[in-house]
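Have a think about this chain, tokens included, and walk me through the fold.
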Amino acid sequence: MASFSPVLVAAAHGSREVRAQTETHRLLAHVRALRPALRVEMAFFDIHRPTVDEAVAALHGAPAIVVPLLLGTGFHFSVDLPALLGPARAARPLAPHPLLVEALLHRLQEAEWHAGLPADAVVLAAAGSRRPGGNDSCRATARDLGAALRARRGAPVPVRPAVLCDGAADGLSLARTAADLRAEGRTRIAVLPYLMACGRFCDRLTAEAGRAECVITARPLGAQDAMARLVLARFDACARRAAAEGGVGARVARWGVPGVSDTAGRR
């Protein structure tokens, strides 16, 4: 791949909250520190600039791979991204992936240490999507996290997905999920944010976790080593495909998502 050196364009949700913007920039600083020779640019789906298409256009023809800083295949991935790619290629969303499980385990262990007790059940709380299949990654990650916890602790620790947004497709609320776990005899329930950074969903999660009497609440994924390595892993996988096919080309891979074109960006 010596002759093929694409730019990594990280595409994030826009947020008016400084704390969320700061966490995203910290994550990209970590990515740059892990691979100093790689050019890494920031872009947004909404609210802030540059937008994804503006960031790609500013490269003046240099090959670009857009890595969506998304945990699922909701609206931004399946609708916004194909329309904004231009002459770039898109990597997969960050989930599911073993490095994401590693990052979640780190946040859970951190929260358990602060609480002074281990969780006997976990609610993996996502913002949620109303689109069909938009919550699949949360369910898959919950299964993977449960398997990892069982292997690490030698006993089953149930991990159940929950969603925060109203009307999310096939989603249970955090309160209902926690109540179901308590009915199964679980008393040390941890809430683990399936969220990239602090913001209104994280604030809502914390409030709902308190009302649901969950005893441990972790921090969102944020800027940690496993997340930075995950961004690079998605970039590298897409770069290998692009190099094998002779260049970037305007394409977003379908990945089984209904309505996402394999040739998005070609006009």
